[in-house]
Amino acid sequence: MTRNIFVLGLTELQRRELDSVRGAHAYTFHELLDYESLVHETDYDLEKLLARARQQLADFDGHVDAIVAHWDFPSSIIGPLLSAEHGLPAPSLPALLKCEHKYWSRLEQMACVPEVVPRFASFDPFAEDVLEQIGMEFPYWVKPVKAHSSELGFAIHSEADLREALQEIREQIADVGDAFDQALSRVDLPAELEGAGGNSCLAEQIITGIQAAPEGTVFDGEFHVHGVFDMHRDEDGTSIARLDYPASTIPESVQQRMVDVARRFMDHIGYDNAAFNVEYMWDRDTDQLWLIEVNTRISQSHSDLFAKVDGASNHEVVIDMALGRKPSMPHRQGPYAVAAKAAIFHDEDAIVTGIPSEQDVAAVRERFPDTQLTLQVEVGDRLSELPHQASYRFILGDVYLGADSREQLEEHYRDILEMLPFTFRPVVTQDAS
Q1: Facing residues of 275 across strands?
Q2: Cis peptide bond N-terminal to 330, omega within 30
Q3: Sign of torsion, CA 198 201 204 209?
Q4: Residuewise pLDDT in 10s, the chain (433 residues)
Q5: Going from the N-terminus, what domains does the chain have, and what CATH number goes with each?
Q6: In contact, 298 and 225? CB cutoff 8 Å
Q7: 3-class SS at 352?
Q8: In sequence order, what are the beta bridge partners of 339?
Q9: Strand ranges (DSSP E) for 75-193?
Q10: CA distances from 237 to 142, 185, 188, 407 (A)
């Protein structure tokens, strides 16, 4: 019997990955809401999106067997809410929000894994006394309690930096913050969160070291990690330039500490019937492990890399859980020893005047089989106006590739960049007006 699986914001790349999972012949994948509304949009209304999704499911002439979400908020909340309404496996909303609300998550982390939590403070970005609310010495990071990726995240080294960051935060925080408040209104919040709603911010100690992320699942109370990733930052230390699988830059013993911390935290908040990935920073000199953040989903950035190394996408564990089955993944059964997702960056604001052609992309795939390319820009785009970009660097696209060694991986990545022609013109006064 064919199982109907609804995927929030389904893309063509995801569809190809989903069609390659074991047992795909028994599944029919349906788009639930569209990518534009869930990911590319910059101003969300959670209740309206929920209403649209409910209507779409109600209009479906068949049985809803599973609902899966791979994107960040609001998909990460919409998927579990709809699953629970249809009697399907799902994590509780309080457990989700204890991960997704950055300040609430830090409070819960302090209660169970305090040794990995950097200094932090909550503040109201619209208040007059922000500096006093933060009460920390420079430098530090500031960010909303909920935002896309590194959007509206700023390194603060002075009062002037803070004033500049607050101006941008005040202009844009409500795009996600108002919808996040709609999610928070569905649960009873602790007294410690008074005044720290969706449009509040967090200041955090700047931490340094080597970054890595275990990914796993909790199903019927059983915790399991199916992979650990290296997260290589660029030379400035501000952006993730490359993800490598499997992890190799951090000792096995430290990776195990990461897994143990994740287990303790998930047990503490009652997280169940869902995937997760947890980002850490490890200081080799001091052996200090820092917890950066907890994500309530598999990482789509990991999907193709799992397929290249292990022989199956991590979509498998999400489908298993959504259908009420114990999740499982193959191990080291793929065609490559290592794999990576590497970003294509541009460091200055500019107008895009040229992007790689279909012939350029085909040439890359012919020379490097199994390589996937995703481009995030089109001719005419101004980089600073693209949605969900970081405040300090612009991503043009990503390259997913496999290799027999890390040295070969880096060599192939450099060769691919040389094969992808992008052209730009500088931003001039009339562009900025």
Answers
A1: 217
A2: no
A3: positive
A4: 899 999 999 998 889 889 888 889 999 999 999 999 998 877 899 999 999 999 999 999 999 999 999 899 999 999 999 999 999 999 999 999 999 999 999 999 999 999 999 999 999 999 999 999 999 999 999 999 998 767 899 999 999 999 999 999 999 999 999 999 999 999 999 999 999 999 999 999 999 999 999 999 999 999 999 999 999 987 666 678 899 999 999 999 999 999 999 999 999 999 999 999 999 999 999 999 999 999 999 988 899 999 999 999 999 999 999 999 999 999 999 999 999 999 999 988 999 999 999 999 999 999 999 999 999 999 999 998 887 676 567 899 999 999 999 999 999 999 999 999 999 999 986 665 4
A5: 3-88 (no CATH), 119-205 (3.30.1490), 210-426 (3.30.470.20)
A6: no
A7: strand
A8: 245, 402
A9: 120-123, 140-144, 154-156
A10: 16, 36, 38, 21
Tokens 């199916």 identify what position? 226
Q: Can you tell me which residue has the tokens 């951090």?
A: 250
Token digits for 329?
């993944």
Q: Are strands 3-8 and 423-426 parallel, antiparallel or unpaired?
A: unpaired
